[in-house]
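At this stage, I needed to go through a protein sequence along with its fold in token form, as given directly below:
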Amino acid sequence: MRVDKRWSTRLHARSPAIEHALSPSRGSSGGDATVLWAICFFCGENSPPTFPPPDVEKGHDQISRLITSQSSSPAHEARLQSRHNLVTNTSGLAPGYLQANLLILPSQHARQFHDLCLRNPVSCPLLGITSPGDPHTVRPAACIQHPDFDLRTDFPMYRVYQHGKYLGSRRDLRDVWADDYVGFLIGCSFSFEDALTGAGLQPRHQKTNTIVAMYRTNIPLLPAGIFTNATCIVSMRPYRPEDIERVRDVTRPYLATHGEPVGWGWEAVERLGIRDVHHPDFGQPQVFEEGEVPVFWACGVTPQMAVEAAGDKMEGLVFAHEPGHMLVTDWKAGDLEQLGKGSFD
């Protein structure tokens, strides 16, 4: 019953993709493209496709027919469902596909936030990024493959921040979008829940149809630019002590979506600085069955803590996902090995 002693190392080590990109011995196969992805997200231009805007006033049956006719995969269908306000919790949605957290901020802060992610790859593993002002195209291209994508509508719910303060939530960002916004997609632990279920370890919040519990901790993020004095968020799923090694084995390969747990057991609650495990800071309380203990993972709500800590240093509105309301990407669990090697362009 302990906090994983390697967490401080895992939190601040470079991800395999970044190590691969920076390695002088990476070879010519995909190396330059990887550098562009991992280091230089801010070059290039994209022309957004045109497509009919979503009409949330249509009846349920008509929307369902529209989704059926437009969807090309379970991930695409999930995004269309989110766009048309048919999704409230993405846990368990489109099994086998990786899900993403979100942060959208003015381009003047994008490079420093990018650096923050690279310095804290366990809490903030990057899956993709948009060019300034373009809500339709994500790089690497394999992250989102359908041309009708819209970052402003394809998450089920968004949070709005100004000067580090949470202002409220909304379902659509089209009327508040600006030409200099950059979006970051960050790996989410919902991505490995299908694998846990397949191993007979279904998360409690899926069984109870609730949103996973998330907590503020005392674990600091390595700073970057204006993003200083922020701490990590963790998500929690209850398990029996004898199941924890299997839980670790199942989730360990998912480095692009936080990987294995960073702490477990009742002692971890105190060591992580969690005030009350029965009253989460985000999400909903989880029921513990007899003999179960809390198991904690790094969480992609962490960037929102960096925004809070930056406070008045941040200009303009900043947007994030509502916890539990993720984007389903076109990355699949089978892509994890290549993601870890940084071999996508």
The mean pLDDT is 84. The domain at 58-188+310-341 is CATH 3.40.1640.10 (PSTPO5379-like). Residues 60-70 form the longest helix (11 residues). The chain is about 25% helix and 20% strand.
